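General statements about sequence and structure are easier to judge against a single worked case. In the encoding step, the backbone of a single protein was reduced to a row of integers, each denoting a local shape. The record that follows shows the chain in one-letter code together with its fold in token form.
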Amino acid sequence: MSQDPRAARSATPYWWEAAPPASLPRSPLPAKVDVAIVGAGFAGLSAALVLARAGRSVAAFDAMNPGEGASSRNGGITSGNIRPSLDSLIKRFGKETAYAIEAEGKVARKFLRDLIQTEGLACDYKLTGAFSGAFGFDQYDAAARTAEGLGKRLGIDICAVPHAEQHSYVGSDLYRGGTLRMDIGGLHPAKFHAELLRITLAAGAAVHDHTPVTAIQREGETFRVTTAAGTVQARQVLVCTNGYTDKALAYLQRRLVPVRSRMIATEELPPEVMARLMPKGVMLSEKRQMGFYYRPSPDGRRILLGGRDSSRQGDPLKPTLRLRAGLAEIFPELENVKLSHSWFGNVAMHRDMVPRLFEHDGMLFATGFCGSGVVWAPWVGSRAAHRLLGAEAGKSAFAFRPPAAIPLYRGDPWFLPAVLKGFTLQDQFAMRRARR
């Protein structure tokens, strides 16, 4: 049976071509550690790095190859988005917390830039700026007002881009203007994880891959961490599993919903096409709930586009076709372009839709990044480490109560197709209004 010509050549992440996740040399488990970390993605490694350099004995455990989950599958856009609007944050958490969350985004993006530059991490990082397209003039006017307020409050370089000027950033007629924010860029996520792993191991932290944690029990002032390879006694425990949380952490699993996010990569495009469609090489997104995020590949030869995937089992063709249709909607000339890769990974959503650092039963959790983990996972992971050290740097606007449990949910997101369909209908209604 021949492959559908609309499908991608490969179902593995494009990023793995240059930096495939790999197993580490096997090492025996220590009997005792100061800190056991569950998860060796961006958050877990960022925490392990801080702790190891502070002289703590650290063991991080991952059920897969380090970074094989979301850390090496995402779009590599350093957005640091917070999904609820400022008004929604104020209503939910109060004005002081809402403004603190907003302000911490600026600090977290700078933290990531400084980490990459100071540590010399070779991950194709570029501070390109990011354009977000608006649908209809009403949405553009609202986005322009939001950008003006954000620029004044935080002193960041952000502005409205009217429809007449949007071709300077994206070669598409789909939008009616948008906003440009210059403190956002792009990196190669698999290379970033590989480099973060390198410096974390060099700092003295131990990372045990293919070693899932099966149980954690509190024993007085310490914890018994049971893994597939044996048991470790830990003075402190940090959980950073995010979208790959399983039933061994049932308390967290009831609060996080794993949502598939899928990406496609085109085959290499002619230089003149890339120059026309992405003239400044900025990161790109849309102002709709089921919209797409997209970008040039680090070498500037392909377009990578991502969005939500409502499938729950296997690797069906339909989600790839949805992204292909979205790419053609933005760039009609790419309707028949060949795809080199189509892949998915889990992001972790929850009822608050705000990243979180919280404690439960003596353990610390750094999780719930809601699709913006490139910025938030290293930041919240590092804040968690400082919190375990009792340092002032452990303070964060995200350190408050745990996300609420989801009724009738025990890890199987049976309701997701209906939820995503609802978002799609809302977008369709908004698009109809935008055409008036």
Remarks:
- The domain at 8-129+183-434 is CATH 3.50.50.60 (FAD/NAD(P)-binding domain).
- The chain has a mean pLDDT of 94.
- The longest strand covers residues 339-349.
- The longest helix spans residues 95-119.
